[in-house]
Specification:
This protein is an alpha/beta fold. The protein is built from seven helices and nine strands. It has two domains: 114 residues, Nucleotide-binding domain of ferredoxin-NADP reductase (FNR) module (Rossmann fold); 53 residues, no CATH class. A seven-stranded mixed beta sheet has the order 4-3-2-1-5-6-9, sandwiched between helices. Bound molecules: FE2/S2 (inorganic) cluster (FES). The site of FE2/S2 (inorganic) cluster has 12 residues, from loops.
Length: 198
């Protein structure tokens, strides 16, 4: 949006707040705009006495956000880009796996694109570290009525908007979530084309 544009409406806060307590050693992982979501969580976890390691990543340097802020509110902040234009080249899972091999952690908290969160879940599972993800399922009403944000978690049906958005990553049906999030992609592309957007 441009300065001066208006939103039609906004609703929130929705769902459950992140449970902030002293877990011990925590890794927060943020990919793309997910970095904006992990920032207040990292800050609150640090203030609650946790040792916080942040791993943040974007496709390229220009797309990386809140690096300074996360460096300020974490014990260590590891930066990665897909193309190596800033920080280490590679994916968050490379660094995450190395950290888990070196030390014991009590919580991994990840927000980013679905493939990234799924990959984080695959990496943390063998280490048995509790992993929370904040799901970005498609939402319409945001109040538990439309069913658009339905996800399967541990074979139970949940609504991301009222039951989440955070869930135990090891229990999420990632394939179903990916499939459901693509349902309107043709229409989204069509609307973008009509509006001259990429
Ligand atoms: S967005 Fe409608 S039920 Fe969650």
């Amino acid at each position: 949006m441009k300065a001066g544009d208006e939103l039609y409406s906004a609703v929130g806060p929705l769902g459950h707040a992140t449970e902030i307590k002293n877990y011990g050693k925590v890794i927060v992982v943020g990919g793309g705009v997910g970095i904006a979501e992990i920032f207040p969580v990292a800050k609150a976890l640090k203030n609650a006495g946790n040792h916080v390691t942040a791993i943040i990543a974007s496709r390229t340097k220009e797309l990386l956000i809140l690096e300074h802020e996360l460096k300020t509110f974490s014990n260590e902040c590891l930066v990665m880009t897909d193309d190596g234009s800033h920080g280490r080249k590679g994916f968050v899972t490379d660094t995450l796996k190395e950290l888990l091999e070196k030390s014991k952690y009590d919580l991994v908290y990840a927000v980013g694109p679905i493939p990234m969160m799924k990959a984080v879940s695959v990496v943390t599972k063998p280490f048995g570290v509790f992993t929370l993800v904040s799901l970005n399922a498609l939402m319409v009403d945001g109040t538990g009525m439309c069913g658009c944000c339905r996800v399967s978690v541990g074979k139970e049906m949940k609504f991301s908007c009222v039951d989440g958005p955070e869930f135990d990553a090891s229990l999420v049906d990632w394939q179903e979530l990916s499939d459901r999030n693509c349902i309107y992609s043709d229409k989204e592309k069509h609307i973008c084309r009509l509006n001259g957007m990429r």
